[in-house]
Amino acid sequence: LAGREEADAVVVTDAVFSVDGDLAPLNALHAAARTHGALLVVDEAHALGVVGEHGRGAAHAAGLAGEPDVVLTLTLSKSLASQGGAVLGAPEVIETLVDTGRSFIFDTGLNPPAAGAALAALDVLESDPDLPARARDRALRIANLAAGSGLETAEPAAAVVPVFLGEPHAALRAAEICAEHGLRVGCFRPPSVPKGRACLRLTARATLDESDLTRLRTALAEVASSTGRSLHA
Question: What residue stretches are annotated with the Aminotransferase class I/classII large domain (predicted)?
Fold first, then answer.
């Protein structure tokens, strides 16, 4: 940023990284961007509804909501269980996007049922403010189940829990095992992740109950056994 020749600059980051599930250092990124006259764009896709007070997202939790040099993008299709997305920013940013954003101008508008569903989901979040904390609790329990089975994982910052399996064939087989137990999981292989870091992405939700977690424990134990990593072999 300091050595750039261009007048304008944009720093873009996930709030919660979509595979590893860790939280971006938003305050440090914002400080660097502001120091060098750059705009900070934060994608709250995996943070909205899960991170911060009432699930308002990572930027709000970091005290950056409403800052004039911060723009937030978010999806309506994850925690809000709808479709589409939104951009939150200063009025001049929104006006510029509406007037000049080609992908906005030449696209079909968001359909009313999707917008209504997202608004209804926000009402649910407002009426049950403990939902985000319950989702994070389930994510932590999932990570503990994976670690307890001998699998490599990471402490989740939100609802995303990675299970690192190394080679693509191991991740694909692990996803098949989970499917056999009625569990749908994400399966990431290169080039989506670095070579040797193929993994499953498990996503928690607030309504997971003990029977769900027991089924997951069984599946993860089988995954660990199939990769030779089981602590109980």
Answer: 6-220
CB atoms within 10 A of CB 172: 15
For the segment(s) 9-127, the CATH number from 3.40.640.10, 1.20.1250.20, 3.40.50.300, 3.40.190.10 is 3.40.640.10
Say how far apart CA 53 and CA 138 lie, in whole Å: 17
CA distances, 118 to each of 27, 62, 90, 104 (Å): 28, 24, 22, 19
pTM of the entire structure? 0.90
pLDDT along the chain (233 residues), means of 10: 92 96 97 96 97 95 96 96 94 94 87 95 95 97 97 96 96 97 96 96 96 97 85 47
Q: Give the list of residues 6+ apart from residue 3 with CB closer than 8 angstroms, or none.
A: none
Phi-psi sector, 37: left (phi>0), alpha (psi -120 to 50), beta: left
What is the chain's alpha carbon radius of gyration, rounded to the nearest angstrom?
Answer: 20
